[in-house]
Amino acid sequence: MENGLERYYGGDENWLRYVEAVSVNWSAYGQKTELLDALNGQEDIAKVCVEKFPYNIFKVITEQTNSLGGLCISQCCSDEKLIKRVRTMLMRMP
Q1: Do the Cβ atoms of 68 and 89 come closer than 8 Å?
Q2: Per-residue model confidence as pLDDT tens digits over 39-89
């Protein structure tokens, strides 16, 4: 049984459509390598983070948050269940 946001994950197809819809600035983003390293190579999450947190992205991805069960985005990017938790959180954010 999943206890976190991952239980509300809408599926990979919905996630990929979301990533495509919001990934406006990825091609021009200048710190792709550093961001991908911080997110364990999760390019889809990186693309969304560039849009959601354009000015303080590295601070945001390393801050613990209650939405992720006290973890930070970067900590969640090496576990499939936690990746779904991050994806769900990002999709629910304005």
Answers
A1: yes
A2: 999 999 999 999 999 999 999 999 999 999 999 999 999 999 999 999 999
The closest of 75, 71, 67 to 5, measured between CA atoms, is 67
Angstrom CA distances, 76 to 10, 31, 54, stand at: 18, 20, 20
Instruction: Show the tokens assigned to 80.
Output: 């499939």
- The whole domain housing 72 covers 5-92
Taking the CA atoms of 64, 79, 26 and 5 in sequence, report the sign of the dihedral they define: negative
- What is the count of structural domains for the chain? 1
In whole angstroms, give the CA distance from residue 8 to residue 2. Answer: 9
